[in-house]
Design a protein that fits this description.
Helix content: 10-25%
Number of helices: 2
Structural class: mainly beta
Number of strands: 47
Largest sheet: 8 strands, mixed
Distance between the termini: 230 Å
Shape: rod-shaped
Oligomer: single chain
Strand content: over 45%
């Protein structure tokens, strides 16, 4: 029995050794790979002691053992008679992604073998981006102030594409951008959709770009030009930087608008100038009355209208409108001289005193304290930049002093006669009071026989006392009294009756004649006596006067 067992064991060992020597095995197996779409992919698979047929599976589905792999036009396998079972995919596309396995079929006495499953990953280049709004036209007109939504898409990318927006060559990274990524129908690649929201302030040239980390080469869309429709934007220019009275100059209204077809209107001082339809307005012989006047330009297109005004600065030489006036003041009073001038540039004031042009002040008004030192004549002088100095009429500060009366000391008249007694007063005060008295008693002016008439000529004031039909009682001492804020004066006029004066004169005349006669007699007596004495040799005697 033992020999039979030994024979059987020997046979089994022989068969096992023979089977082991004829088994199939992999000399090269595929590994996980990532390829770019469009490239040539070759997955390695080599079999030692290959006896069965090669086959590749994708996601568990066998693709067949024919090396040309009918039904898979971009796929092929290595030669079936060789040990190579590699898989060719040319070009590889995102749809080719999946789990692949290299298998070798069984034959009689030889078992089938299979490689470890491997994953083929495909990265796809982003498609050329395009702006949806640029599909039908290259220019998009937008009203100023209106929001615009633009959409850019890039398809067929894996991983998803990144999209950026540009205005010309300037990136719009800070703009309002929203991006969304979705899988495409093949469930392998992605579509990136980016929305740009903006409010154009000027014409723009918008484009978008796409790229990814695996495909950093940037692709740009066809540009979309945004043309901004806006009402005119204007500014006003004057042909002269400095406008002087009498000048001729132009005012130009520079306008920028789209649509560019515009209409002009001009206004001067708020009134439309008929017939002025151009962009330039000519102004001739400008006068000072138009200083600070507004010149307005109105420009209109089909979008809207815009207006702008400029205020004219017309320079003209200074003119004194209000001359200073002489002032009468008491000592110690505050006194102000006023001077008002008109001019552009703004007039500058200085004050001088006396003919020596000594500086007294440098403001528009001159304020002083009245005194003997400030009792002078002052002149306001005005100048504006670029023009000659002009001077006001002189004005004097005069101190009020007590009145001084000038009148005759006596006046003669006859009864029944009309007579006028005059009292002249030197006083610059307009508050001077003049009164008449009779024998130191205020005279009652009844405006019948006694009347008073006042005259003023500058600082000289005169009061005339008119007495009608003199009576004997009217003769006597009349007093003129004058007073102002700082003092008073009093003078007396004696009204004498002429008749009394004549009687006295007659009496005095007789007395004088008698005296002369006596003196003459005495003189003749002494002359005669002297003559006689001479003859007699007597001593000489002298006349005692």
């Amino acid at each position: 029995m033992f020999p039979i067992v030994e024979i059987l064991l020997g046979l089994q060992l022989t068969l096992s050794a023979k089977a082991a020597s004829s088994a199939q095995y992999f000399t090269a197996e595929p590994k996980d790979v990532t390829f770019k779409s469009g490239e040539h992919l070759k997955m390695p698979c080599a079999v030692g002691n290959k006896q069965g047929a090669c086959q590749w599976t994708k996601d568990g589905f066998g693709m067949g053992i024919n090396p040309s792999l009918p039904g898979f036009p971009r796929f092929s396998m290595g030669d079936g008679e060789s040990e190579e079972c590699f898989l060719n995919i040319n070009p590889v596309l995102p749809a080719d992604e999946g789990v692949y396995q290299c298998q070798v079929g069984a034959v009689a006495g030889v078992s089938a073998i299979a490689s470890s499953p491997v994953v083929i990953s495909i990265s796809a280049e982003p498609g050329l981006p395009y702006i949806l709004q640029a599909a039908d036209y290259d220019v998009l007109e937008v009203l100023e102030g209106q929001h615009v939504l633009l959409d850019c898409e890039s398809q067929g990318a894996k991983p998803p594409a990144e999209i950026k927006w540009f205005d010309g060559d300037s990136s719009l990274e800070s703009a309002n951008i929203k991006e969304a990524v979705t899988k495409q129908k093949d469930n392998k690649t992605f579509k990136t959709h980016s929305t740009l929201t903006l409010m154009p302030k000027q014409d723009m040239n918008i484009k978008c770009s796409s790229f990814s980390e695996q495909f950093p080469s940037i692709k740009y869309s066809r540009p979309l030009q945004i043309r901004l429709r806006y009402m005119p934007k204007i500014n006003i220019d004057l042909s002269k930087d400095r406008i002087q009275e009498g000048d001729k100059f132009s005012v130009t209204c520079n306008s920028k608008a789209y649509p560019e077809n515009v209409a002009y209107k001009w206004f001067f001082g708020g009134i439309e100038i008929a017939g002025e339809k151009n962009d330039t307005l000519m102004i001739e012989e400008i006068s000072r009355e138009h200083h600070a006047s507004d010149v307005k330009c109105l420009v209109e297109n089909e979008v809207g209208r815009t207006e702008m005004a400029t205020t004219l600065n017309v320079e003209f030489p200074p003119t004194i409108l209000t001359h200073p006036k002489s002032v009468i003041a008491k000592k110690g009073d505050n006194v102000t001289f006023h001077c008002v001038a008109e001019g552009n540039p703004e007039p500058v004031y200085i004050w001088t005193k006396e003919k020596a042009n000594i500086l007294a002040g440098y403001k528009q008004n001159l304020t002083l304290i009245a005194s003997e030192r400030t009792e002078k004549t002052y002149v306001c002088k005005v100048f504006s930049d670029g023009y000659e100095i002009i001077s006001s009429f002189p004005a004097r500060l005069m101190l009020i002093r007590k009145p001084v009366i000038f009148t005759e000391s006596t006046r003669k008249g006859n009864e029944g006669q009309d007579i006028i007694l005059q009292c002249r007063v030197d006083s610059i005060s307009n508050k001077t009071t003049i009164l008449w008295t009779k024998n130191d008693i205020p005279l009652v002016i009844d405006n019948v026989r006694f009347k008073v008439v006042h005259y003023n000529e500058g600082r000289e004031q005169q009061s005339d006392l008119l007495i009608s039909k003199l009576e004997n009682k009217d003769f006597g001492d009349y007093g003129c009294f004058a007073a102002n804020e700082v003092g008073k004066d009093y003078k007396t006029v004696v009204l004498i009756n002429i008749s009394d004066v004549e009687i006295m004169s007659y009496a005095i005349g007789i007395s004088v004649a008698a005296g002369v006669t006596v003196l003459l007699a005495v003189y003749l007596y002494y002359r005669l006596k002297k003559s006689c004495a001479g003859e007699e040799g007597s001593e000489e005697e002298k006349i005692p006067f």
